[in-house]
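Proteins fold reproducibly. Consider a sample protein:
=====
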Amino acid sequence: MRTTFSAARLLVGVALAAFAAVGSTTPPPAFAQNSYSIYSAFNGPDAPIPDGQTAEDVENYVGPSDFLLDKAGTFFYVAEGDAGRLRRVRADGTTAAESISLPFKPNKMRFFPGETKLAVVGGGYEGRLAVVEIAQASETADAQTAPKPLPMRVVADYPIGHTPSDVSVKRTDDGRELVYATLQFEGAALEIDAATGKVERRWDVGREPFCAELTPDGRRYVVAGRITDKLANVSYSCSAVRVVDLETGEIKKTDLLNGHNLLTDMTLSPDGKYAFISAVQGNYLSVTSQVSGGWIAENVFLVVDVETCEFVEVFFLDDEALGAGNPWGIACSEDGERLVISLAGTDEIVFVPLERVIKTLADRPAWARPGFGAYMYSSFATGEVQLPIRLRVKFGLKGLRQTIVRGDDVYVLSYFEDAICKATIKLTPPYEYYPNSYVSQEAPPRLFRADAAETSENDARPDDSADEAAAFAELAAETASNPNAGPPLRFVELEPRRPLKGVEITRSFARLAPKPVLTTRRRGEILFHDATSCFEHWQSCVTCHPDARVDGFNWDLLNDGTGNLKNTKSMLLSHETPPSMISGIRADAETAVRAGFTHILFKHAEEKNACAVDEYLSSLRPVPSPYLVDGELSESAKRGKVLFESDRTGCAICHPAPHYTDLRLHRVGSQDVNDYIDAFDSPTLIEVWRTAPYMNTGGFHTVRELLLEGKHGARDGRLDKLTPQEQDDLIEYVLSL
C-alpha cells in the first residue's frame, strides 16, 4: 500500500511542479521552519521567575480547552482549562465578557437541549461533571426564539471518575436528561442521569477513549481510542473505534489501518451516517532514516460508517512536501458543504469540501479497501479549473485545537495563545490558479491594511504587533474593576488569503486575555507540540509521545543500528532517571532531547529551544493511578508493597523507591534477534499503569503477562511460588505506582 501512495505522491509532485512553473520564473521560497506570526506569544519575551518561585507560580494562562457557540450565534462559551473558569462573551464584541469559577479545571462541554444549561467535565484524576445554568427558555410558542441569558451558576456537581475526556447530552422521550462521558484512564463510557448524578450504565470502550459523539437521533454513541491497545512486536497495530448501541447496550468495534494512532477529535456528518476523526498515521515499520514525504508519520482524517461500525476510508491532509502536522479539531458545517480541520502542529486550518468527500465514498468500487480514495488530486488532472481538495490557511498562532463551523465562518481555539481565531471563506467561481497558489508560498499573516498597496503575502511588512497589544489593553481597562468580567471580544483583522482567483479567505483573531508572557517551561511545552520545528512540518514530539508519554508502537531508531525496533518510552522523569533510551545509549535526557530534534525531526534545535524542552519535561508530574482508592493504596496494594520490597520477589533491587529504578542496564532475557546488546535500561515504574505494551519488545499487554508469562527478572521461578492472591497483590501495587 505504501508503494501505491508513494507513486501517487510522485505524480502529484510532478503536476504541482509543472503547475507552479507556469507564468513564473521565480523559484518558490524555502519552507519556513519555526516561522510564527508576529502576534504569537512565542515571539514575545520570557516571563521572569522571581527567586524562590517556580514557573507554575507565575504562569497565569487562560488555556482554553473547549468552546461552544449558541445556535443564534450570539454568545461564545469558553472552558478555561488552565484558569478553571467558564466564560461567556458576545460574538459581536458589543459587551464585556462574564465568567464564573468552576469547582475543577474544565476539559470539554456541551449544551443541553434547548441551550439553557451546559454539561462540563474535567478535573483530571478527580474527574467531575458540572451542570451549569446559563439561560431561561423562551415563554413564547416560537421554538426558534433564543433563550434569555441568566447569570451563569453551577446547579449540580458530581464525581464521575478518572480524567473525563469528552461529553455529550441528550433528552429522552420521557423528558429525562442523560449525559454521556468518556473516562480516558478508566477506559470507560458512562451514561449519567443529569438530575441525580447516578451512573445508569457503564461500558468498557478500550484504551484511552479520547473523543466521542452522539448521533443526531440519540441512538448511538461513537467512541475513539486515542492510542493503540495492541502488542507492539507485531506487524499490525492501530487504535480502534467503538459504537455503542444505546437501545440494546451492545458494542461494535472496528480496527483502523495499520499505524493509525493519536485519534484526537471527532465530528459526525449532519445526517449522522459518518464519523470523521482527526488522526496520525505512524509508519512505524519504516526505518527512521528520513522524515521527508511523511516517511515517519502522515496526517489524516478517518471515516467510519456509524451504523455498521465499519472503517471505510482515510484521507490525507499533507501536501507532497509540506506536512500537516498533528491534526486536532474537526468540524462539519451544518449544511454539509465543508469539513474543517485544525492543524495544531503547523498553526493552520484546512478547508475540505465535504460533498466531494461523500461523493468519493459513494463512488468507491465494491472491491476497494480503505485508502482507495485517500489522495484526491483530480483537480490537477483536468483542463477545467476546480477547487483543490484541500485549502490550507495559516494563522501562525500556537495550539489551534477545537473547531466550530457556521456557514462560511470557522472559529478555532488557540490554546497556547488564549485566543479565538476566525476564518471566512468566500467563493466566487470561475477559479484560476496563480503562479504562487501552492501552499508552500504562504507565510504567517500580518495586520490587514486597507490602504496598503497590493503586495505578496511574503513581502516584508512593519511589525505592528504593538497595535494589537495596545488595543487589548484599552479593552481590558474597561472591566478592570470587576473580577468576574472580561474584555469584550474584538477580532483583529489579518491579511486575507487568496490561494487562487475566485477564492478569498479572510482571517482575524481575538484575545481572551492579554497576550501571554511565556515561561521557559511553557515555551518548551509549545515546542514539544510544534511541527514547524520539523523539516517539512510532518510531525512533532507529541506524534510519538502524546502527553510526553507513549504511543504504544515499536520504532526502528538508528541510534543502535537497524532492524531492532524498540518500544516507545514515557518521558516522565526522564531527566531524573538517566541514562535515556531503552538501550541506554544517550547518557541523559538533555542529550536525548537534542538528538531527537536532529534525528527524528531532522532539524537542528537552537540551544535555547532545547533547554526549554528540558524545562518542560522536567516539570512533568505523575498522574495518580486509577488503581488508587481515594488517593491511597488499596488493601491489596499494601500487601503487594510488602512483597515488592521483600527478598521473595527481589523487585526493589532493580526498581527501588523513590523513582523505582536503579538507573542501570540489566539482562532480563528480552534481547531481540537483531539486537546488538543484551542489557536494557531499567525504567521507572511510576505510571506503569499507562505505558503498555511492556518491555523493550512491546511484547506484553499487561503487567500480569509480563511477570507471570515473561518471568521478568525472575527466571528462577520465584514469582511462580507466590500464591494467586500474592500475585494479585503484587500486580495491584505495581499498577498503583
Observations:
- Residues 1-33, 377-383, 453-463 have pLDDT under 50 and may be disordered.
- Residues 635-736 form a domain with the Cytochrome Bc1 Complex; Chain D, domain 2 fold (CATH 1.10.760.10).
- The first helix runs from residue 2 to 21.
- DSSP finds eleven helices and 34 strands in the chain.
